[in-house]
Design a protein that fits this description.
Helix content is about 10%, strand content about 40%. It is mainly beta. A four-stranded antiparallel sheet has the order 1-6-3-4, with no helix packed on it. Strands 5-2-7 form a three-stranded antiparallel sheet, covered by helices on one side. The longest helix is centred in the middle third of the chain and has 9 residues.
Length: about 80
């Protein structure tokens, strides 16, 4: 996701594993009505345990409707795998 880019409105109904190999602290979750949301607890816990040397792996709970905005000056990159029961 390039700098300044914003994803379309979407949701994640199922738990997932998110592997990020490009990340910074200016990524924001935005609610359907445009309100900036606090960082996900799952992401915060993963970042606190991360050594910063390898990819960041986050076990994600399902997420409601929203979108992601990259407010930073560099790209972010990751792959999310949803576990559909």
């Amino acid at each position: 996701m390039p700098p300044g880019d914003e994803e379309p409105l979407h949701h994640h109904r199922w738990p997932s594993v998110f592997v990020l190999d490009g990340l910074h602290d200016k990524v924001r979750d935005i609610s359907p009505d445009g309100v900036e949301l606090p960082p996900s607890r799952d992401v915060i816990q993963a970042i606190e345990a991360w050594d910063g040397q390898s990819s960041l792996v986050v076990n994600m709970a399902p997420q409601p409707l929203g979108r992601v905005l990259n407010k930073g000056d560099t790209s972010i990159h990751g792959i999310r795998v949803e576990i559909k029961g």
